Amino acid sequence: MNDGYNVAVVGATGAVGTKLIEMLEQTNLPLKNVKLLASKRSAGRKLLFKGEGLFVEELVPESFDDIDIAIFSAGGSISQKFAPEAVKRGAVVVDNTSQFRMVDDVPLVVPEVNKEALKKHQGIIANPNCSTIQMMVALEPIKKLAGIGRVIVSTYQAVSGAGAKAIEEVKQQSREILDGKLPEDLTTGILPVASDKKHYPLAFNALAQIDEFADKDYTKEEWKMVNETKKIMEDDQIKVSATCVRIPVITGHSESIYIETEKEVSVADLRACLEDAPGVVLEDDPSQQIYPQAMNSVGKKDTFVGRIRQDLDVTNGYHMWVVSDNLLKGAAWNSVQIAESLHELDLVKI
Amino acid sequence: MNDGYNVAVVGATGAVGTKLIEMLEQTNLPLKNVKLLASKRSAGRKLLFKGEGLFVEELVPESFDDIDIAIFSAGGSISQKFAPEAVKRGAVVVDNTSQFRMVDDVPLVVPEVNKEALKKHQGIIANPNCSTIQMMVALEPIKKLAGIGRVIVSTYQAVSGAGAKAIEEVKQQSREILDGKLPEDLTTGILPVASDKKHYPLAFNALAQIDEFADKDYTKEEWKMVNETKKIMEDDQIKVSATCVRIPVITGHSESIYIETEKEVSVADLRACLEDAPGVVLEDDPSQQIYPQAMNSVGKKDTFVGRIRQDLDVTNGYHMWVVSDNLLKGAAWNSVQIAESLHELDLVKI
After folding, report:
1. ipTM for this model
2. Which one of 3.20.20.140, 3.40.50.720, 3.40.190.10, 3.40.50.170 gives the CATH number of domain B5-127+331-344?
């Protein structure tokens, strides 16, 4: 028995960071102290944790001297620099960025799917991409029931995945359009990808680009869904292709997913297995117009699944609509669940 | 040679009707007179046609006495009642509603694809569903090049497809959300389907329901894409499944389309054949972040195709992103093109 963990949140003032604090307030993980870390610019700010004011401290290597679990969500370059420092000082790192996800000895974990992979950790555990996580939660029970040979996914992703500035930008653009501004006069500069050459309006638009373009004209976001799925499901044979699209929703990713199973099953079988699956809420009653909605997912930890239908021609093909809060299950909640799993499996040395 | 057609627009004051008037201003079809028809409520209003004020007249059976071509866009029940009246009085009807689309001797026409089907018309020609039309324009050249065995489509459809009141509703909801109203306090009543039991907010949301639910838990909109594709392409063997989703875009439908061709081709071959295809504008240069966008399609008659990629596992599988103005190519422009084709093929008796 330990008397609780010292947990650090790196990037505490960001869009995901503030959700991490909320999730730590709700976790069953025994906590001794919570330390909030951010850049020098944000240091000195006071944030509430369980009703108590905590000062945000500047992130330095020594920040991790007394830390058991460090949850990172401050961008890839910060993780690259400071995660090894945290490990060196004895912390286990749960990293929300893409920095270490595809590194061989770094477990990439969705607790409902591959919690056991944590046992091989070498200090760093990666939290998968938001759009991958919710797909994994929905597909794992189906994989257990019938095997999955193939996945084709088209996403409808929310803007909060691109950070707080992107949210402000799309709100600003929305106001401008409602006030009658022309498309060419809208404020742009962040979306679709802050670091990329061109920027386009997202308000009342749909942008088929998330992250930069990469190999074979797929974007990095699309490659994440492909490669992370294979790693998390520990199955290199599973066929995955993705089209990732940003739409003007603040929070809540939606996904239109087509799967081909190895074994033919009925839609009733699929519904039954999803109804019992961890982390899944089945919302699938067309007669009552019940189906998952991004807006309804906000603030909830579950992944919502509905619109389950058999393909009209392929007998082992199925379509579904999968929705989750991208800041919670897609990021903060999955990270805290990983910390809970580390505790449950006794994988953090104190 | 004739000295021009007398053309009636039924539903002249609606979202599509006003676009029909614009398209008739731009058409090469020889016009003698244009008659604007609508419900009693709208009769007496004056609309501009080529700078001239035209009075909207009340729709009655006798409205068609001197009409050669009548373009209907006033809802299925109006078409059901008045299209046969127009035909009886010697007019050829181009119907924008779903009323006659699947009737055997009614040609369902996208001029770039199956103009020849007009030759068998018995007085009524149906304009396909907006989401089907743009898909057909993009797929026909590929079908000619390599054959198409299978289509899986997920749509990102604009709200103007649901009419002028739906546009106002989503604008109102957007303002309310930007002003801080909670989801449960938003104004609803029209979307997703005015005639259905429940109504949900669409602003900053995505609704996986367009039209009512029907057979096998697919919506009527999804069935339209399936059945109309088979009819237009004159191929009952083509496998089509659809997931239709409304997103907060005012005008411009986007579609994530996966196809399997009969013959394996390269992405370069696909781009080349689309570049030369009628009604298609290829916008596909990832290195310059060039891909179709709903916002850019507004007011244009073309169908924009981009994000063309080979599937990562299936060698005859391809993904693409297809965008078009749902009020123009998806409705008004396709209807006027049908009228132009009727003239070209000399299929209207004067």
Report:
1. 0.97
2. 3.40.50.720
